[in-house]
Design brief:
By secondary structure, the chain is of the alpha+beta class. It is about 25% helix and about 40% strand. Strands 5-6-2-1-8-9 form a 6-stranded mixed sheet. The chain has a 4-stranded antiparallel sheet with strand order 4-3-7-10.
Length: about 160
């Protein structure tokens, strides 16, 4: 009997270790479309992580990506993004347009755009998404301007990055 218990524990412990470990990450892709004179942004965040944060902020259960999701979810998302995701173009804070969102398996992708950018000399990104809730949250920023590609890794201690062109 003791041998069975030990074997059971030896089998369950490794499985629990894998299920307890979780990566906290978001990916933001920013590209300057010179022909459109616009900065285009795709920000991907895990739905379950975002739901934890928004449920606390809203003091309710939002049921993201389900039929029970609130009708005003885009306004809730935009408020969260405006508080946690900011961009400066050429040293000036720029508001972005919320084009929409798309649920892709367990990720929500936000489509944002900053129009009327005739010249891009620098871009600074501030991203505090999920960092206050998840200690190991990493927000990856990938910026593409012309032939220049640059990646940054932001976290709780480093919430911004600057690319000078």
């Amino acid at each position: 009997m003791k041998l069975k218990k030990r074997l059971l524990i030896l089998l369950i412990l490794p499985l629990m270790a894998f299920s307890m470990h979780k990566y906290y990450i978001s990916l933001c892709e920013i590209e300057y479309a010179e022909s459109k004179q616009a900065v285009q942004i795709i920000l991907g965040i895990f739905i379950d992580d975002l739901e934890v944060v928004l449920n606390k902020e809203q003091a309710s259960k939002l049921n993201l990506a389900t039929e029970k999701e609130p009708k005003n979810i885009n306004a809730i998302y935009l408020k969260y993004l405006n508080n946690n995701f900011k961009i400066k173009i050429n040293n000036t804070a720029k508001p972005y347009r919320f084009i929409g969102k798309k649920y892709d398996d367990d990720i929500v992708r936000f489509y944002l755009e900053i129009p009327n950018i005739s010249q891009l000399n620098s871009i600074e990104v501030f991203n505090t998404s999920l960092v206050n809730e998840f200690e190991n949250q990493q927000n990856i920023i990938k910026i593409k301007v012309n032939k220049l590609n640059k990646s940054y890794y932001l976290d709780k201690n480093n919430i911004s990055c600057l690319l000078k062109i």
